[in-house]
Structures are given as structure tokens and as C-alpha cells.
Design goal:
It is a single chain. With 171 residues, the protein is of the alpha+beta class. The protein has one domain: Cytidine Deaminase, domain 2 (3-Layer(aba) Sandwich), CATH 3.40.140.10. The chain has three helices and ten strands. Strand 4 and strand 5 form a beta hairpin.
Length: 171
């Protein structure tokens, strides 16, 4: 049962600048760089419908290539638990991130299936899972794809430059 319920039309996601720096430092700028990824940790503010992403942890790869990544979830889960305990339960798992070797990334069929499967199998307290893909272009040029997996559907979030946050805008 989900304890922290967020309204999709009002959801707001803010990334600490250090988180964006961590993720964008892993971009696949040439064919020799393998796909990388990990978990996102954040603080939940359900009354404000706000998620603040405070850390991005790279997960060790079981195997990785230019276009595929399989991570060790056991090690990631231990890091998530450590952050949870050290923060007194204030910092929690909010989603996953990985790189793509394209300028403006978008989720593949495998990504969408993985996001849905992760949402269903995760023991998360909130009714969403953030899904982030880092491309090769800059953040301002669309090199960061952010979505929310809710139940059986993935929703793309849009960036508001003025407020420096991601939000849902119906198509």
C-alpha cells in the first residue's frame, strides 16, 4: 500500500544541481563509453506534491555495452538502505537513471518495460517512480528525459526553466 500519494497534474520534481552534475558526468560522448545508470534518492513532500532529488548513485554493472545495461540491484539496495537509515527515513528511493548514446534521449521499449516492472516490484511508499535518461546534449538542449511511472503508465515531465523544475503537462 502506498502511503505518499501524489497528484500527477500537480507533480513537481526538482533536481539538486549536484545530482544533475553526477548524471551528466556519465554521458556517452563516444562509442567506447558504455551505458551507465543507477538509483535516485530524494525527499518527499506530498502535501506540496513535490519531490526533491538529492542524490544519484551509480549502480555497479553486471554487464554493460554501448546500448545495454544490467545493474547489480543488491548493491544498490544496500546503498538505498544506508541513506534511509543515515537520514532518519527522510531520504528514500525515488527512481532510476541511465544514459543513452543519443542527443535527445527517449525511453526504448525495453526501458518502458523495465520501468513498469520496477514500479510493480519495488517496495516504495509513494505512488510514482521517477525515470531519468541522460543523453549526449546539454540539459538545456533536451539532453535529460524525465518521466514518472505510475501504475501501468509512463508520463513524460516537462522542464520549466524559470522555476527550475519538472512538471506534468498533458499532451
Amino acid at each position: 500500500m502506498k502511503h505518499f500519494l501524489y497528484s500527477l497534474p500537480k507533480i513537481q520534481v526538482v533536481f539538486e544541481p549536484s545530482v544533475v552534475n553526477i548524471m551528466t558526468s556519465k554521458t556517452q560522448l563516444d562509442r567506447n563509453v558504455k551505458e551507465r545508470g543507477g538509483v535516485l534518492l530524494g525527499r518527499l513532500f506530498p502535501n506540496e506534491n513535490l519531490i526533491v532529488v538529492v542524490d544519484a548513485i551509480e549502480s555497479p554493472a553486471i554487464s554493460s555495452s554501448y546500448t545495454e545495461l544490467y545493474v547489480n540491484n543488491n548493491i544498490s539496495n544496500k546503498k538505498i538502505q544506508q541513506h534511509w537509515k543515515e537520514s532518519g527515513g527522510k531520504i528514500t528511493y525515488v527512481g532510476d537513471w541511465h544514459t543513452h548514446p543519443e542527443m535527445t534521449p527517449s525511453p526504448s521499449f525495453i526501458d518502458r518495460d523495465t520501468f513498469k516492472s520496477t514500479y510493480r516490484s519495488s517496495k516504495i511508499d509513494q505512488n510514482f517512480l521517477l525515470c531519468v535518461i541522460i543523453g549526449t546534449s546539454s540539459f538545456e538542449e533536451g539532453g535529460l528525459w524525465v518521466g514518472v511511472q505510475r501504475y501501468f503508465r509512463l508520463y513524460k515531465l516537462h522542464y520549466n526553466l524559470k522555476n527550475k523544475l519538472f512538471f506534468y503537462k498533458p499532451s
